[in-house]
Amino acid sequence: MIRLTALSSAVLLSLAACNAPPAEPAPEPSPPQVDPGTPPAAADTLTAQGFGPLRIGMTKAEVEAALGPDSDPGSVGGAEPEVCDQWRPERAPEGLLVMIQDGVLTRISVASPSTLKTDRGFGVGDTAAAIKAAYGASAVSQPHKYSAPPAEDIFVWASGGPATANAYVQDAAARGVRYEIESTGKVGIVHVGGPAIQMVEGCS
Fold it and tell me: CA-CA 20 to 30 A from 123: which of 52, 81, 107, 134?
């Protein structure tokens, strides 16, 4: 009798297991969250890290492979071009210059007639007021070296920025954007890249 009871219990347990609802599948991982206020940069957009196929830190050879050699090799982009030189690659948009220091891309600059914009939508001709309103406290204003206000320089560091206002950034890994504001109160030049964006006279 004991054996039958044990057997009956085993059969009942087996039937219960067969009739049990199927286990729910493990939930799929949630997709990565993207800040809706910061859309991915388009290929033709200036960012603190570069522009299109150009990335700050590339070698001169990599820059030439990406957008071609100097479009005007007869021009002088720096007093010591082997140390620092500025030029427009053949396939780069009009108004764009690259800065090569010791064989490495350290800065990209755009001026008129360029219509390129940064990843926040600003470029040549935009107002300082609009830039400051968009960036808020991230925008650090410094006096223009040669012109009186409203001319100024507006820096926005994506990484490695200064701990205090007006401090000179020396960290080669730092990346930022500088909006050079003319006496009209509007952007004349946009610089993106490393500490070289702080240089006010080209290679000096």
Answer: 81
Cα distance between residue 160 and residue 152, in whole Å:
21
Altogether, the residues listed in the chain come to a count of 204
CATH of domain 45-198: 2.60.460
Enter the pTM of the model. Answer: 0.79
Q: pLDDT digit string (tens) for 36-78?
A: 344 455 678 999 999 999 999 999 999 999 999 999 988 878 7
